[in-house]
Amino acid sequence: MRDFIRRRRLAISVSGVLAIIGVGATIWALGSHDSSGNLKAADTCNEGIFSSNLEPLERLLPHESSFHSTWSRVATDTSFKITCDNRTSRGVVNMSAEMKNGNKKDWLAGLGSRNTSDASAFKAGTSALAWRKQAAIYAECKPHTEGSSYTAGFGRPYLSITVTANGSAASNDETAKEDLAQLASRIFFEAQLQTGCQEDFTPPPEPPRMTQ
């Protein structure tokens, strides 16, 4: 309940136009930014995720007159998913974190036809990969009996983190890969705060470094 209140207050603080609809354990929040000023963390779907550094998102989505950011959170005893959708008229950066049941093979299968040989690895969770249009993190979670949330009945719970760029945000340069990895690390940190997935979790002290 405290988490719901904290999220609700956070959503209300978003500047511009805001709509909040709560049904059960589902929350939606919409923020918009339509001025010529610089983008602020308060203009985004979740101020906490972007408070430390907005530059990765700004590089992926160059400033335009209209920016929209949507937050959703769905949580029950056996499910958890948060989504942050950021878009302009020309590009989209979608970020999500979802609790799932399975192993690394299942996680890789869920990424579709991505070729891991084309990916760069970075340090986050149990395994993390980045391409020029997507970054993904696999994080094994401790079982429900040891305190992780939203994992009741799961034999092998894990968090699946994805950040995907489309449109003008889908750049082909190496900086885009690093920016996607950094955003993935940030939403992983937020998901960890809400789920208690890993026992000795330490937030990333700096942007992740790519390795082949």
Low-confidence stretches: 1-24
The total beta strand count reads 9
What Rg do the Cα atoms give? 17 Å
Return the average pLDDT rounded to an integer: 79
Oligomeric state as shown: single chain
Can you write the helix and strand succession as a string?
HEEHHEEEHEEEEH
What fraction of residues sit in β-strands? 25-35%
Keywords:
212 residues; disordered N terminus; globular; 9 strands; 5 helices; alpha+beta; single chain
Account of the 3D structure:
The chain is an alpha+beta fold and 212 residues long. It has one domain. Helix content is 24%, strand content 31%. The chain is built from five helices and nine strands; from the N terminus they run H-E-E-H-H-E-E-E-H-E-E-E-E-H. A nine-stranded antiparallel β-sheet has the order 1-2-3-4-5-9-8-7-6, with helices on one face. The longest helix is centred in the C-terminal third of the chain and has 22 residues. The termini are far apart. The N terminus is likely disordered.
Task: List the topology elements.
Layout: H1 2-12, E1 20-23, E2 26-33, H2 47-50, H3 55-60, E3 67-76, E4 79-87, E5 91-101, H4 104-110, E6 120-121, E7 127-130, E8 134-140, E9 157-167, H5 174-195
Antiparallel strand pairs: 1-2, 2-3, 3-4, 4-5, 5-9, 6-7, 7-8, 8-9
Short description:
This protein is an alpha+beta fold.
